[in-house]
Predict the structure.
Amino acid sequence: MKRGSITVFLALTLILVLSFLFSLLESARVSCMQAKAWEVTNVSMQSLFGNYQKGIWEDYHLLFLDGSWQGEEFSMEKFAARAMEELTENLSFSAEQAGGRFWDLVDLEPIGFETAAYELATDREGAVFREQAARQMKLEAAKDALKELIPIQELAKEAGAKKDAANGKWDAALEAMDTAEEQLAAEEAERGAEGTGGAGNGPLVGQGDINRGEQEGTEGSAGTKEENTSENSGTKEEPEDIEEEEAGTENPMEYVKGLRSSAVLSLVLEDPSGLSGKGLDSKDFLEKRKLNQGLERSGAESEAAVTDRLWLQYYIQKFFSNYTGQSELGPPTRALDYEMEYLIGGNSKDGENLEQAALELLVLREAMNFATIMGDGGKKALALELATAVVGFTGILPLIKAVQIGILLAWAFIESVLDVRSLLAGGKIPFLKRTDQWASDLTDSRGAIENNSKAGEDESGLDYTQYLQLLLLLLPSKTLNYRCMDLIERNEQVQMDTMLQSAECLASYQGSPLFWNLNWLSKRGWDNFVFSGSGKIAYGKIR
């Protein structure tokens, strides 16, 4: 046997070489452990977000994770606990599971989890919900799906401006009528004080009273003591020709003023008794309760907010019902039958929401009909003639013109009642009518209302659902977003301010050193390495 030996120099050299190799191995292992920490965090987040709320997906094609975990209270502590379970499960692959042939060189153990940021469906005034609904419609709908809504968006802008203008003119016309009545009352009081007679008849502007007032004033000034005595004894004559004149000069403003204060549904529906009686508890509406808030770092509005609004309205048309029919998609049973009307009215009962929607349609159609009638010289001349008969005694031209406008607005309102009746019956009405499409008659406005007349249909016009879309475009985005989620909450028995849309998390791990502690140059080594892995995830996209 030969005996060998090694020099001290060679021994020291071998120690240095092996220490360097072990350091390289440990460095590579640390890099792998860090990569594993990142990968396990993201896989666990995806697995966690795979537990989306099933009902909302099946009925509304929206993906949200219930942050209350089917409980009553929203809790990110529960989310963190579930995340730790996912991390542990994804790291639990052992040698036994590998048939005893596996040795994990990059073994990790989760030691902590925290949420750096997250978004809820109700965050940013409901924009989170709107963005996902819009994204879902972009995936499901045809490319030209918005061709129908883009023109309606332009019409909504026009309608909003015309509504405000018409309301202002109606108020001015009513003020003019009040001025005329005050002047007539003052004149009659003055005549009464002078003992000229006719003071007890009172102003009845709009129903032939101007003529009667003038006639009574003339009779009073030329009357005798015997005529006044006869008048006081209740034997005053009422000629039939005066009654006919009153009926012929009836002011439609007075009639329409009464219609405006009456129940709207009784005007536009033949039988309001068959309406839905469903209702909700309004105290739980999103706009009336304190909502959970996310920790999203970026609160900036999306650059595609305008387009997303149109996609949301297309989504509403697909998933929400209205008075004229059920939607193509959505849950089989619903808390309210008139859902699109709820989005407009925001009331707790179906009947109230339908009435609000009908009222909004009346106002909108009145404004558009007024625009049509202002372009018809014949109708304007007829209104001027009637205005002169009603308040011409004042001799004030601006007042007469204001009443003329009021009469035209009243006529436009009568026409709008016929329009809304046709829409609720399933017909179509042009946004801006032509004069040859006019259905009502100023001389028989009562008959048109009382006989349940309807406006003629036009296949090139807009139907009831499209008019509702137009009204929805006039709502603030926050209001529309929240009311959509109100209906989803009631239909699915959930709370939308507990529904997670996205999350950004940070998980921490520890791993034991392996090769480093074999390094002879390191006398003490490390007990554990600590790693962190971040994960960002949102439904519909990896963020």
